[in-house]
Design a protein that fits this description.
790 residues; 17-stranded antiparallel beta sheet; 46% strand
């Protein structure tokens, strides 16, 4: 792996993606889309930001304005910050360690500050929040402690100056930060003075904008729009600048009215929102989790209708290298890995509880310096991690769920480090795990084996011995392939290794079914034999690798693949069946997951979505029945047949029978549930109808002639023997009941209530009901009456 190279920020558009419409399900809305890592709010400070600004400042709130841009609201003004990675040689021991990798460059983060001060304000002023959001943020305060903080959409400095409030909000349809000065009747706007500390030059441009040049990218306070609060009529206003102190000028103002002065602050970094969701998971309650963002990375939990519940900030992990996360679907605990930690050379693991609180931290072990992929095995209750390192020859490990013990495994039997994992999948049986390596950036020593782009299979939970080591045919390069992770930045290695790079190794590009192992790099989809690792088929989906991702497969080998702004669904022959397009063409898919109850999840560039899988896996291929001999006989039989899945299969009939067939059944409808041996199992339920021998031969004539000739004089129909709860009702064209009976031996003779004169010739409506065993017979139709002799 490589260490932190120099980065420069670029502006990328904010994106909101995907809508598949709305439909309600019993467990919530089955189709929804939510924006991920939206930061248009103010974060309460409970001590987590105290060390983020120069001493002497009291931080009240923070706001995230871009990948590396933050703003802190203090009792005297606001402080803008921007982070930059720069070369450092302050730690000779760390330099010595990292020099083992010729592609590494030792970097450190430098924070630039720009402070905006309100001059001459009340020294006791504070900011009052309002419009609190329902969700909240959590920040670690130790290895197993954290704090919960509130989020607000607005903050107001009341009486910043006598009779003047400063109200901060986020504009809805543009980036940046918006503030309004509320000038109450009688207040003097000339009292307001603004000074930027840390600025090189402050300029007032011809267009009325105020531009502040500093070590940060240029900050622009756009010319204010001013108006009366009661009727919104505009007032001429603008900035004035003298001795680098800005103030406001207004003309023709009526001081008996409340005046609103409304500037808008922007910075090139403000639009570069860290809203990318790289990984996702779900739990048994239907909650959805996404992991992504940037500096620091965040885990966001949403309920089964797409509402955000909480966001955990990984501020104790290295802010540069992205690792992975996994969810214990039963307990709803999250496990978050650090990609790498250049300060300690030992990657950490965090455990977060269902409410977002930090439960425990594995502090790291130098036998496992890097952790790029993670899977929670619900069968064994174990955490399997694929990683790597520069000094220790270990590429995988087990970590216990209490975050106490780590067991490193040299799954490759390598002689040295520099073998990083990029792909991981758990077998549906839970008994095996598959991983694949990247191409190493360090040449092996004489006689040492090379494990570039190698696929292997290991048992769980022992992770040893390795079943096979084969080439996977891909071209993943160590820490250089996945440029979309941390997107919004351009990074360059100095010196002879100059070139673009990334800050992650792991990709969502591997999935296993009972029959096959599938691998994907954004360009090619490969189908491999699980027992040998040899790929037997492949298709080229796009011309570009490593720009998008996401791969999952169901029990019947329907394959779901993230491709640009869509999900492609292939069958087991790698033939394209369906394409689900995201609503916005600028959307990019990074992860695809199949969930419980045929739900399909995806996340990516600024979005997470849930919908219904368009191709439903059919574990049950057919269900059939042998009929009972009569309505009262219990000699029928029902059988269910399986189509696909992971054997052995478990059968559960309505009466507790656990065989493939259930016997001695009366006429009726019977349910059976089939589960395979996957972990968790695929489950499907169907119904089988056992009929009496003649139930399908119910005969009701559509005409009869009650003319007294002894032929066809009765409305005579045939129903199964031993039918119960019988009834027949006849209505005329106006809906008037003219005949009814519950006696199977009584038939309509064409007369009202079977007495008196014949009804007029015409069409009449009947309803016939009866029970046959547990089957209900409900037949409706029309009968033609022809009563006169022709």
């Amino acid at each position: 792996m490589k260490l932190k190279p120099f980065l420069t920020s670029i502006l990328l558009p904010l994106t909101f993606t995907v809508s598949f419409g709305q439909s309600d399900a019993t467990s919530g809305k089955s189709k929804w889309t939510a924006k991920t890592f939206d930061h248009k709010f103010f974060i309460e400070n409970k001590g987590q930001f105290d060390q983020k600004v120069p001493s002497g400042n009291t931080v009240l709130f923070q706001a995230i304005l871009g990948n590396t841009a933050r703003v802190y609201f203090t009792t005297t003004g606001i402080i803008y910050t921007n982070d930059e990675w720069v070369e450092s040689d302050e730690d000779p021991t760390l330099v010595e360690r990292t020099n083992a990798d010729p592609d590494r460059a030792l970097m450190e983060m430098k924070t630039h500050f720009l402070q905006m001060q309100w001059l001459g304000i009340d020294p006791y002023v504070t900011a009052i929040p309002s419009d609190q959001k329902n969700d909240y943020y959590i920040y670690p305060t130790g290895s197993k402690t954290s704090i919960k903080v509130a989020l607000y959409k607005k903050i107001v400095y009341h009486d910043l100056y006598p009779g003047i409030d400063a109200e901060y909000t986020f504009p809805k349809d543009k980036s940046g930060l918006e503030y309004s000065l509320i000038v109450h009747p009688g207040a003097d706007i000339t009292k307001v003075k603004i000074k930027y500390t840390g600025a090189g030059v402050t300029e007032l441009l011809k267009d009325g904008n105020l531009v502040i040049k500093s070590e940060l990218p240029d900050l622009t306070e756009h010319a204010p729009i001013s108006f009366y609060q009661d009727n919104y009529s505009k007032i001429n206003s603008g900035f004035t600048l003298k001795d680098s102190i800005a103030s406001f000028s207004v003309t023709g103002v009526d001081r008996s009215k409340t005046l609103v002065i409304d500037p808008w602050v922007t910075d090139p970094n403000f639009g570069n929102n860290p809203d990318f969701a790289y990984d996702m998971d779900f739990d048994n309650a239907g909650n959805v989790y996404v992991y992504g963002g940037y500096d620091h990375y965040q885990v966001e939990k949403l309920d089964n209708t797409g509402n955000i519940l909480w966001t955990f900030n990984t501020t104790t992990l290295d802010p540069y290298y992205y690792g992975a996360f996994a969810v214990d679907k039963k307990s709803q605990s999250c496990y978050i890995t650090e990609g790498a930690n250049v300060s300690t050379d030992a990657a950490q693991v965090l455990k977060v509880d269902p409410n977002g609180n930090l439960l425990a931290t594995f502090p790291g072990n130098r036998t496992m310096q890097e952790m790029w992929r993670i899977k929670y095995n619900s069968c064994s209750g174990s955490i399997v991690i694929g990683g790597g390192g520069t000094t220790a020859p270990y590429q995988a490990c087990l970590v216990d769920t209490n975050m106490v013990n780590l067991v490193p495994i040299n799954v490759l039997s390598a002689d040295s480090g520099f073998h990083d994992m990029c792909l991981i999948a758990m077998d549906p049986s839970g008994a095996d795990c598959y991983m694949a390596t990247t191409h190493t950036n360090k040449a092996p020593g004489p006689g040492q084996p090379i494990f570039d782009n190698t696929l292997f299979k290991i048992p769980v939970p022992s992770l040893t011995p390795t079943a096979y080591l084969v080439s996977d045919g891909f071209h993943f390069n160590e820490i250089e392939s996945l440029a979309y992770v941390g997107s919004g930045i351009i990074i360059h290695y100095p010196g002879p290794s100059a070139g673009p790079s990334a800050c992650a190794n792991g990709m969502n590009g591997m999935a296993a079914s009972f029959s096959w192992l599938y691998m994907y790099d954004g360009q090619k989809l490969r189908q491999c034999d699980k027992t040998t690792g040899l790929c037997i088929d492949s298709i080229k989906i796009t011309k570009i690798s490593f720009e998008w991702g996401g791969l999952d497969v169901d029990a019947c080998d329907d394959i779901y693949v993230g491709v640009r702004d869509s999900i492609h669904i292939y069958n087991s022959s790698l033939k394209l069946d369906t394409v689900l397009a995201m609503q916005d063409p600028s959307d990019t898919v990074y992860s695809v997951l199949l969930g419980h109850n045929n739900l399909l999840y995806a996340c990516g560039r600024g979005f997470v979505m849930q919908t219904e899988a368009p191709v439903l896996p059919k574990i049950i291929s057919s269900a059939s029945a042998q009929p009972a001999s009569t309505c009262s006989a219990c000699d029928g039989k029902a059988t269910v047949n399986v189509n696909c899945g992971n054997p052995p299969f478990t059968y559960k009939w309505f009466d507790g029978t656990t065989e493939q067939s259930d016997s001695n059944l009366c006429p009726g409808v019977y349910s059976v549930t089939v589960s395979d041996a996957s972990c968790p199992p695929y489950v499907e339920t169907t119904q089988v109808t056992v009929t009496p021998g003649k139930v399908a031969d119910i005969t009701v004539p559509n005409v009869f002639t009650p003319n007294g000739d002894g032929i066809n004089d009765l409305f005579n129909y045939i129903i199964p023997r031993h039918a119960t709860a019988y009834s027949m009702v006849i209505y005329d064209r106006w809906g008037i009941k003219i005949f009814s009976t519950t006696d199977q031996t009584v038939f309509w003779n064409g007369k009202i209530d079977n007495t008196g004169s014949l009804v007029p010739d015409g069409t009449y409506y009947y309803i016939l009901k009866a029970d046959c065993g547990s089957l209900g017979i409900n037949k409706k139709g029309f009968v033609q009456v022809i009563g006169e002799q022709k």
